[in-house]
Amino acid sequence: MPAMVDSVAQASAAVALPRPRTDSGFSIERALHGRRSAREYRNAALTQAEVAQLLWAGQGVTSREGLRTAPSAGALYPLELYLALGRVQGLEAGIYKYVAPGHRLVPVAPGDARPGLAAAATAQDFVAQAAVVLVFAAAEARTTRKYGTRGVRYVHFEAGHAAQNVALQAAALGLGTVTIGAFDDEAVRQLLRLPAAEAPLYIMPIGRS
């Protein structure tokens, strides 16, 4: 499958996302109480505002210094978020990458990648039924250059922090999600066109349950 746009055109093709809310009136306690793993999703689209809020929860910038919603060892931020869009109002199906500075999506490749991700995730077919599938990838070298092999552990901690943020944000939005670690790394890498320096860590299908 050919690339959707070249690297020069990506900036102009980027999708500016709606600004995230920082106070919804939905308490963190309520989100913690309501969070459950959901593997059934309705055939209903998400809004761009919902997608923006989920991505911001995972890796959004929260300070002028560039600090983010999830803690990161040394503030090195090795995580990269990719989104396989299937049903989002006003956006074409395809693979997109979240760019935290600027809060935007950059297109990576066209077409519905959800069935491919479901197949890569040990044929967990419900992945293809979600409106979007969020994939956490990591460039571990950003962290290991400073912390050595111990940095790999820190990257995995960070993925857990960020994924929990997304799970709680989904609960606050009335959406369903589940975290998936069982998948074929190379199949996901190829499907998402990941650079050689990045490896997939986590898959989160998200939809209306």
CATH class: Alpha Beta
Query: How much β-strand is present in the residues?
Result: 15-25%
> Between the first and last Cα atoms, what is the distance in angstroms?
31 Å
Count of individual domains: 1
How many helical elements?
7
Keywords:
alpha+beta, disordered N terminus, about 210 residues, about 35% helix, NADH Oxidase
Explain what you see.
- This protein is α+β, with helices and mostly antiparallel strands and 209 residues long.
- The protein has one domain (7-207): NADH Oxidase, CATH 3.40.109.10.
- Helices cover 34% and strands 19% of the residues.
- The chain contains seven helices and seven strands.
- The protein has helices spanning 7-13, 28-34, 48-59, 114-120, 141-147, 150-173, 185-192; strands spanning 15-16, 79-85, 94-99, 104-110, 132-138, 176-177, 199-207.
- Strands 1-4-3-2-5-7-6 form a seven-stranded antiparallel β-sheet.
- α2 (28-34) crosses α6 and α5 packs across α6.
- The radius of gyration is 16 Å and the shape is globular.
- The chain starts with 6 loop residues before the first helix and ends with a strand.
Quick synopsis:
The protein has 209 residues and is an alpha+beta fold. The protein is 34% helix and 19% strand.
How do the strands and helices of this protein lay out in sequence?
Blueprint: H1 7-13, E1 15-16, H2 28-34, H3 48-59, E2 79-85, E3 94-99, E4 104-110, H4 114-120, E5 132-138, H5 141-147, H6 150-173, E6 176-177, H7 185-192, E7 199-207
Antiparallel strand pairs: 1-4, 2-3, 2-5, 3-4, 5-7, 6-7
